[in-house]
Amino acid sequence: MKSYPVGELKTHFSEVLEYVKNGEKVGILFGKNKKTIAMIVPVNEKKDLKRKIGLMDGKVKISFDKDFSITEDEFLNI
């Protein structure tokens, strides 16, 4: 990963965008210690739209009995 201080980033912005366009991440350095405070990353257009629900997604199976029922009021008061 390449990293640029803010001033250098402004000077080489077109070059930075080419790196990002080619799939690379670019860090932005800031302050006297030149710490990475942000990153420019490529947009992933092929996002997996499956949403994981919680940390246990795929590790547990949740099922309900056939006779399970709950009223809307019971649900809202949980």
TrEMBL record:
SUPFAM superfamilies, A to Z: YefM-like
InterPro entries, sorted: YefM-like_sf
Family membership: Belongs to the phD/YefM antitoxin family.
Protein's name in the database: Toxin-antitoxin system, antitoxin component, PHD family
Upper lineage: Bacteria, Pseudomonadati, Spirochaetota, Spirochaetia, Leptospirales
